[in-house]
Amino acid sequence: MENKSASGSVDTNAVPEDVTRESKAKKIIIDTDPGIDDAMAILMAFNSPELEVLGLTTVFGNVTTALATTNALHLCEVAGQHAIPVAQGEPRPLSGEEPLPADFVHGTDGLGNTNPAAPSGRAHESAAVDFLIAAVNKLPGEITVVALGPCTNIAKAIQLDPSFAKKVAQIVFLGGCFFRSGNVNPACEANVFCDPKAADVVFTSGADVLVVGLNVTERVVLTTSDLERIGNSGTKFGRYIAEVVKFYAEWHLKSDHLQGIFVHDPSAMTAAIDPSLFSWKEGVVRVAETGLCRGHTLLDMGTKKWGENGNPWVDQPKVKVALDVRAEEVKRLIMNRLMSETT
C-alpha cells in the first residue's frame, strides 16, 4: 500500500536515505521526549555497539514536542552524531488535549536547567509518523522502535498504515506500572497517562511489544556515589550526565526520599540491548482511558478463561511485560555505556 502522511497525501521524501542493510547491529529508531533520563538512554544507545540508531522521532511528554526536537538535535551533537535524522512528532495526544510538560522533574529546558546552546542542526523534512512508516516499509522486519515517551507517534503510524504493526520488528516501550503504584498518581505511569488511548492502540495492535514499566525500572537505581563515579570518569558522556542529572537527583530526593535516581529510560534501552536481563510475562494489556484511574495498565495473567459477549479482553493480541529484572546487571551495563569513550 502507499504510505500516507499525516496530512493524507503520499510522502515520497520520508524514506531515510541512509537506512541500509549493511550493519549487523539491531536497527533502532528512538521515539523520545528528552528529558534527563531520555538523554541518558540516547547517549547509551549511541555508545552501544549492539545498536544502530537510524533516527530519532520526538513527542511531547517531559517537554513540549518542539523542545523535544531541539533537545534531540542537541544530544545528537553532543554525541558527534550530526547525520542522525531527527523527525518532529505529534504535539498533543490522540484526544487532542493540551499536554502539560514535567518541568518540575526535568527543568524548564528538559535538561536540568543547564540551558545548552541552540543546536546547529535542523529537524528532518518529514514528520515523525511519516518517517516511522517509511523506514519500517523500507526495511520490514528489521527495525525496532524504542519508545521512551508517550506512544502517540507510533499509534498514529499504526492507524495510518495497518501493516506497520506487522512490519516493525519490535516495539520496546517504557511505560506502565504493573502491580504497584505509578509516578503520576497511584494508578498510572507518566508516559501512558499522557496518552492512554495511544498506549492501548499499541498494546492491541498485534506488534511484538516489550513493555518495561515502573515495577522494574524503579528497582534500577543509580546512587549518589554511582552518579559521582560517572561524573568523575573523565569521559565526554560522563561529564555531560553529571551536569544535567543534578536537577533530576534533587527532585528524586524531594519526591521519593531517594539518594540517587531511578533510571527509567536507560532501563528500557537496556531491554532493547539485552532482553535476557529481564523476565517477561506474555498476556493481554489494556489501558483505562478515562476516569480516576486514567492511564492504568492492567495485565491479564491468563489464569482464567473469560466469557465472550463483547468482553474487551477476549481475542486481543498479547504483549510481553517485564515482571522481574537483574537490577545490578542492568545498572552495570548502563554505567559502562555512560562511562566509556564514545564508539
UniProtKB/TrEMBL annotation:
It comes from the Eukaryota. Residues 1-12 have a biased composition (Polar residues). GO terms for molecular function: purine nucleosidase activity. Keywords: Glycosidase, Hydrolase. One of its GO terms (cellular component) is cytosol. Residues 28-331 form the Inosine/uridine-preferring nucleoside hydrolase domain. Residues 1-20 are annotated as: Disordered. Pfam families: IU_nuc_hydro (PF01156). GO terms for biological process: purine nucleoside catabolic process. InterPro entries: Inosine/uridine_hydrolase_dom (IPR001910), IUNH (IPR023186), Ribo_hydro-like (IPR036452). Belongs to the IUNH family. This is Inosine-uridine preferring nucleoside hydrolase family protein. It comes from Klebsormidium nitens.
